[in-house]
Write a structure and sequence with these properties.
Layout (H helix, E strand, L loop, with lengths): L1 H17 L9 H5 L34 E14 L5 E7 L13 E4 L5 E17 L3 E17 L3 E16 L2 E2 L4 E23 L9 E11 L3 E11 L4 E24 L3 E20 L6 E22 L5 E20 L4 E21 L3 E19 L11 E13 L4 E14 L6 E14 L2 E14 L2 E18 L1
Antiparallel strand pairs: 1-2, 1-3, 1-21, 2-4, 3-4, 4-5, 5-6, 6-8, 7-8, 8-9, 8-10, 9-11, 10-11, 11-12, 12-13, 13-14, 14-15, 15-16, 16-17, 17-18, 18-19, 19-20, 20-21
């Protein structure tokens, strides 16, 4: 009798699962364990959907079930040699630190065919960040997000509220040869409201029908956002004195749009652009200054234009040839206006950057994937005009060239092994030494009908191309899990 009941329960469970949306195993950790092959790995975290651009309306267009995603990562680096000695350590629950956009993270709920919700909180803490000449500080960031989307016959509407809290704690020590820091505290809180819209046309007549998707989003700041710093400084052989700094962020807004053409399982081409604008007003108060205040106003503007594609061609009966690439153009202008009560200066920073990626690989679904990826980042313009310091111009930017080799091998229907090798060369134009970074990634994953677990271990070294005794060694690990609800 018990055996009959177990068989009946399993059949009912399978029937229930058959009526649910497709299981989406999206995992940044899985892709990073292959050397970061984002252009060729078949994974929802790099499938060019509108959701990946941060459009909240894109949440309603995902073909996935309710899920809970949680990640944890640790990173440690140790710098030695004539460069100097320093140590950094990072703890975070963000799936991919380089992504500023929140994607597959936290709790995602799809209670009805129309409504979608996402709730999450994440954490990032980095110790040993350099500041000034000889000091370091710890940056702690906390984010909380509530996102909702509603599917319409022609597309979707979405809205989200994001709260960001950033704390900086400077370590006691020397800021330069004459000034030291005894203690400090500082923090900032920012709340952002984003709205989004997306449309699909023409309405797909079948799952394999070609389609277009277009979307746009707008973000604004809710309420004030002020960074407050309280420092206790000292000069050599002198008593301590307080310094108070405030930096409010005002007139913050951003907007963007995207256009995606898709032939399911074959072709994806996406164009996207976004623009960010905000102002900061920096004030510093020192008790023994006659005027008491030194102020600085910064107007920050950036624009980003991106074109990306993913192509899948049948290579044999069991294999696909995956091709992918992207071109990204980034512009930023940062004029500064400084005043000390009696004088007024103007500084200017301008950057124009082009980034490219291209990847090629072979994939046999649930058997193996292996391939090669090229990445470059070049600054067309990277100049600074520091008129307030008497310097006409300087260029401290760098060009980056990276190659990655890696892949994934399924050892069984549920177990997979991953390996990747990344070589990255940075060529500096502002006097800093050129560097070569070598990174080895390795990991494994387990997939079940109720979810997945991915683990990654990575290690490497950065070396001065002109002096091999200058090195930075690093080591890290990451574990992430997905539970379908």
């Amino acid at each position: 009798m018990n055996r009959v009941m177990r068989i009946t329960f399993c059949l009912l469970l399978l029937v229930g699962l058959a009526g649910k949306p497709t299981i989406s195993y999206a995992s940044e950790n899985r892709v990073e364990a292959t050397g970061g092959l984002t252009t060729i790995m078949t994974d929802e975290t790099n499938d060019l959907s509108l959701f990946l651009d941060g459009n909240p309306a894109g949440l309603a267009l995902l073909n996935t079930r309710s899920r809970f995603d949680l990640s944890g990562q640790w990173f440690y680096s140790d710098q030695e040699g004539p460069w100097g000695t320093s140590k950094q350590q990072t703890w975070t629950t963000i799936p991919r630190i380089s992504d500023s956009t929140i994607r597959y993270e936290g709790l995602m709920l799809f209670p009805t065919p129309n409504w979608s919700f996402q709730l999450l909180g994440d954490f990032l803490s980095t110790q040993g960040l350099p500041v000034y000449t000889s000091d370091t500080y710890t940056l702690s960031q906390y984010r909380g997000l509530v996102r909702a989307a509603y599917a319409l016959p022609f597309g979707a509407l979405g809205v989200e509220i994001l709260n960001i809290e950033s704390d900086k704690n400077y370590d006691p020590g020397l800021l330069n040869s004459f000034t030291g820091l005894a203690s400090s505290s500082g923090g900032q809180n920012q709340m952002l409201l984003k709205t989004g819209i997306a449309a699909t046309f023409p309405a797909p007549s079948s799952p394999d029908s070609p389609r277009w998707q277009a979307g746009g989003f707008f973000t604004t700041q809710l309420g004030p956002s002020v960074e407050n710093q309280n420092l206790i400084l000292y000069y050599s052989n002198n008593s301590n004195f307080p310094v108070t700094r405030t930096t409010p962020t005002t007139d913050y807004y951003s907007y963007g749009g995207e256009l995606l053409y898709e032939i399911p399982q074959r072709v994806k081409i996406r164009f996207s652009t976004d623009f960010i604008n905000y102002d900061t007003d920096y004030d510093q108060s020192v008790a023994f200054y006659s005027d008491g205040v030194k102020s600085k106003i910064t107007y920050f503007q950036t624009m980003n234009v991106d074109c990306a594609t993913r192509l899948i061609f049948p290579f044999s009966e069991q294999e696909n040839l995956n091709l992918g690439g992207s071109v990204d153009i980034y512009f930023t202008n940062v004029p500064d206006f400084l005043g000390d009560g009696s004088q007024f200066f103007h500084n200017y920073s301008n950057r124009q950057q082009i980034s490219t990626r291209f990847g090629i690989g072979l994939e046999s679904p649930k058997e193996y994937t292996f391939g090669f990826q090229w990445k470059s980042q070049n600054y067309v313009v990277g100049a600074q005009n520091l008129l307030s310091t008497g310097l006409n111009s300087s260029n401290t930017d760098f060009d980056l060239y990276q190659v990655a080799f890696g892949g994934e091998r399924w050892l069984s229907p549920t177990w997979a092994f991953r390996l990747g090798l990344v070589l990255e060369d940075r060529i500096y134009t502002g006097g800093n030494p050129d560097t070569l970074t070598t990174t080895v990634d390795a990991g494994f994953g387990v997939e079940k009908v109720f979810g997945r677990v991915d683990f990654r271990l990575f290690m490497g070294q950065t070396t001065d191309n002109n002096n091999s005794t200058n090195t930075v060694g690093f080591l890290g690990s990451q574990i992430s899990t997905t539970i379908f609800l």
